[in-house]
Queue: 2 jobs
Job 1
Amino acid sequence: MNIDKKKNALTAAKRLEKRYPDAACSLEYKMDPWKLLVMARLSAQCTDARVNIVSKDLFAAYPDVYKMAEADVEDIEKLIFSCGLYKTKARDLSKMCRQLVENFDGKVPDNMKDLLSLSGVGRKIANLILGDVFDKGGIVADTHCIRISGKLGLTGSTNQTIVERELDKIVPKNMQTDFCHRLVMFGREVCTARSPKCKECFLCDICPSCEK
Ligand code: SF4
C-alpha cells in the first residue's frame, strides 16, 4: 500500500483525539515538572501504575529536589526497589537532583540540550518534559509509539531516535504531545502488542497492517 505519511499521521491524530479527548500523561505528577522528571526516569522497564504507587512514598520522603539531592543513594534505592533497575535509577536520580541544584537553581530546564545534560535523561524523557511541561511539542518515542507507528506505516524503523525524527516531520508540532499520550491509550485498548483488535479499529482504513 502506497501511503501519504503526512496525511495519514494527521488523520490518525484527529481520530485519536476524537476517541481519547482527554489525553493525559499516565504518570501522576501533579503538575510538578521535577516530579515528572523523577517519575519518567523510574518508568524505564516498569509500568506507569507501579511508578505512581512507588512515587507516593518517594515524594513523601523527599518532597522537593533539594531534599532528594541530599539523600543517600542507598535510602533512595530502598524506596524504589520494586521499580526494577533500582541501583542505576537511584544513582541517576541522586546525581540528576544534584545537577539540577548546582546548575539550574533547582529548576527543570526548558530546552533539549540542558535536559540531556542531566543524569539518566535521554531524548524520550526530554521530549516528554518539553511537551507536557513547556508546551513545546516533542515525540515521545516509547514502546507504544514505536510499535503503532510501524503498524500504521508512518515509520519503517524501530530505532527510537529514527522514529522520533520521522514522526517529528509528519505530526504537527502542536499535536505531538497529545498524539503520543493517545497512542499509549490506543495501544492498551485497541492496538495491543499481543493481539491488535483490527476488527474494531477506527484506523483500519489507513493502516497497512490491518488484518480485518
Ligand atoms: S488496524 Fe490493527 S494493526 Fe492497524 S492500528 Fe488498528 S489495531 Fe493496529
Job 2
Amino acid sequence: MTTLELTPLTGHVAGRVEELSLAALTDTEFEEVHEAFLEHSVLVFPGQHLSVDDHVAFAARWGAFSISPFVQYLPDHPQVLPLQNLGKANAVTENWHYDSSFLPQPPSITILSARQIPTGGDTMWSSQYHAYETLSDGMKRLLGGVRAEFAGTRLAKRVDKGSEVPSSLHPVVRTHPETGRKALFVGHPGDTMRRFEDMTTEESLPLIEYLYEHSTQPDRLYRHRWTEGDVVMWDNRCTMHYAIHDYGEQTRSLHRISISGDTPH
Ligand SMILES: O=C(O)CCC(=O)C(=O)O
Ligand SMILES: [Fe+2]
C-alpha cells in the first residue's frame, strides 16, 4: 500500500505529491513515485527548491540522460538544459508537442525544476491515453499500424540548420512500454507531424489536424501554474505539452533534464 501523499489534479492526467523531499528520496519512496508516475503521467512536487546536483541525482534514478545536439546545456552540468525567456517570437515550445518526436528514440521523461517564475508562463499537458481511448472504434481500426513522419522543423529553424530537418517515422498509436496502454502519437500539423507514411501531405493533413485538435480538448488537460521551487515531471510517451508565452519580457527560468527513451512501437 502506498504512503505517498498524492492528490489527482484532474480526472485523467497529473497528480500532486506533497510532504516528500526529492533531494532525500529513499528507494521505497522512489518505487511509490514511479508507480504514481505511471498512473498519472505528470507529477507535480511543490516546494522542492532542488540544487542542480539534486536535480541531476533525482533524474538519474529514471534512466540515462537524453542529450540533444540542438541546444546548449549548463557548462558544468552537461545534462541540465536552462530554459529561458527567448521572447515570444522565438518560443519553440508554445504549441502542443511531444519532446523531440523527430528522433528515432524520443526521450521517455522530462523533469523541470522551476527557478524564477513570472506572472503567467503556465504549462499545459494533455493525456494522449485519453485522446486515444475516446476515438471511435472505426478510427482506432483505421489508425492501427499507420505510421507518420515526425520532423524537427521548428527546432531546425531556430538553430539555423538550413534544409537539414531531422525526421523519423513513428506509429500514430503507440503502446507505452511500461503500462501497456495505447496512446495517440501526434504533432503539430504540417511541421512537427508532416504526413502519414506512403501518403501525400494533402491526403494526410485533414486527419492530422483532426487528431491534433481532438488531443487537446480541455477535458483531457492539466494546466500548471508554476511556483518557484516546483518540480514537475512528465511522461513523454503518453502526454503532449504546451508552454504558454503570456509574460512578455519578464524572466522565466527553469532547469530541464530529459531521460532517454525506447523506439516507439
Ligand atoms: O517551458 C516550459 O514550461 C516547458 C517547455 C518545453 O516544452 C520543454 O521543456 O520541453
Ligand atoms: Fe517540450
